[in-house]
Structure formats: C-alpha cells, structure tokens
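re: ur question from earlier - yeah i can do the single chain one, its not a big deal. heres the input i used so u can compare w yours
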Amino acid sequence: MDTFKQIGFSVGDTVKLLWLHRSSEIEINPKELHDTYEDLFPGRNVAYDYVARIAKKLENEGYLSMSQVQHKKYYSITASGKEHLRNYESLYYNKFIEMLKVIERIYFYLTKDGQKPEPPEYPLHQEFRSYFAKLISVKDMTRFMIFNLGMNRTEFYAAEVNEQLNELFGWSPSNGYLYEITREMEAEGTIKGRWKEPEKRTVRLIQVTDAGEVFAKQVSANLREQVINVRKYIKSFVVFFE
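and the output i got, formated as tokens:
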C-alpha cells in the first residue's frame, strides 16, 4: 500500500521534500540523499537517477543551488527553496500530526505495544477527516467497534459505537455512515437489530451473532495490519520536520 500516494503525496513529492529539508541543514549530494531516503522508507525503493533528476529540477526552479567538489555535485537550499519548504510544512505537517495522534491510539488499543497515548482532548478536525478515511478503512473501524462492544454486551445502542470511537480515539464516522454499515451487517447476518420501541422506530438495539463473532477475528486482523503499515509511513513522514 502506497500510503502517501493515497492522500495525494507521491514518491516525487516525498523525494522533493526530502531534498528541501536535508539541503536546508547541510550541503548534500544525490548519493547521500538516496541513502537517506532508503533509510527512512525501507521497502519503498526509488532509483538513484530519479533522485538526481529531482535535484536538477529543483535547481532549475530556483529552489536549490549546486556546487561541484571533485566531480561530485552538492546541493544547498536557496531562499526560494526555504519558502517552498515552509509551504510544504504548513500544508502537510499539521495534517499528519493530527492523524498520527488518532492512529497511535488505535495502534495501542489493538497491539498494547509501547506507551499508552494520551486520551483525545478533541475530535479529529473536520478538514482532516477525508484524508484519514483514505488511510484507514472506515468500514473496518466501524465494524471492529461494533464487534468489540458486542463481545461484552448482550445488546447495545447503535449510537454507542460512535461514542466509543470518539472517547477512545478522537474519531468516528458520520452517523449516516454508521447506520449504513449496521444495515449492511444485518443483511450479512453478522449482527441482528431490533427497535427499542417498534412503533416509534427511533432507537436501534444491536446484538452480535455467532457468525459475527467468527467474522470479528478477520476484521480485527485486517485493521491491525492497516494500522501498523499506516503508522510506519506517517511516522517516517513526520521525521522530516523534527
């Protein structure tokens, strides 16, 4: 899964940002930059020639300046490059930091690995929610919490699913999507529902079925794999700015 590409951040954007960031600290040549990229993003290989071409492009655009030492090209950032870097930071950094907070809470809840994160002080900002939905399957998150509640409760209200997600992670799907998922799960037979007051049909009670208990293991495993991968890449990105 190419996490950055999913949210409109391509390999080229990643290399470009790394050039700007590293060249703002030291003069650096393409070989060193290529090695740094591979250290930060193992498994996301990129050709050395591609790294060198990005540097040349940034030089032509006025964001990097080049000097030559013993036939090696070294690049440093220009004033225009520093401004361009600040624009990148303002565009992406807060977005990734806020999403990482939510992902870290989900990761700890699923794995119990590391130090327990601080509980959410506020829900994920509305402007970040569409990006979050491209990183983590909203359906799997919702189904996971439905099954999680069902393991400990005979019945529960549908609204409690979002309450739990917000309380634990600082994120939940829209109410409309929640009810869409519950209808789908009822049709699949993984949950069954009933109206608390059939004549009013306003409050829906949910119960996880035997089939749901079996399916819950697959949902949990899928979600765990997603969260581990996404967390790794988001943390790698945040390293740029720390």
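The chain has a mean pLDDT of 91. not sure if urs matches, ping me
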